[in-house]
Design brief:
Elements lengths: L3 E5 L4 E6 L2 E11 L2 E9 L8 H15 L3 E4 L2 H9 L12
Length: about 100
């Protein structure tokens, strides 16, 4: 079974799951049309690699599809965008 990513707006986070098992989250604060990503965490003991990348790519694709922008306060999200320059257009400066 492949992991799936979904937005849980009530919990203010994107989640990556395999079935009912939560493998990771990308927490955010939603401010108008901007998503401020504050923390990303994945289960390092899941035996899977690339979960964080899948989680962040899917979250950013979702933000892009909504015409939104991103403030990557989270070091993981910021680093991921630095390595994937085609996502830099989503960044706006924020606090």
């Amino acid at each position: 079974m492949e992991p799936t990513v979904r937005n849980d707006p009530e919990a203010h986070r994107y989640e990556i799951r395999e079935g009912d098992t939560l493998l990771g989250t990308a927490a955010y604060e939603h401010r108008g049309n901007t998503w401020v990503f504050t923390h990303t965490e994945v289960d390092q003991n899941s035996g899977r690699s690339g979960l964080g990348s899948t989680l962040v790519r899917t979250a950013l694709d979702d933000v892009r599809s909504q015409g939104g922008t991103v403030v990557p306060q989270c070091p993981f999200v910021r680093g991921w965008i630095e390595r994937h320059r085609d996502y830099e257009d989503l960044i706006v400066e924020g606090d």
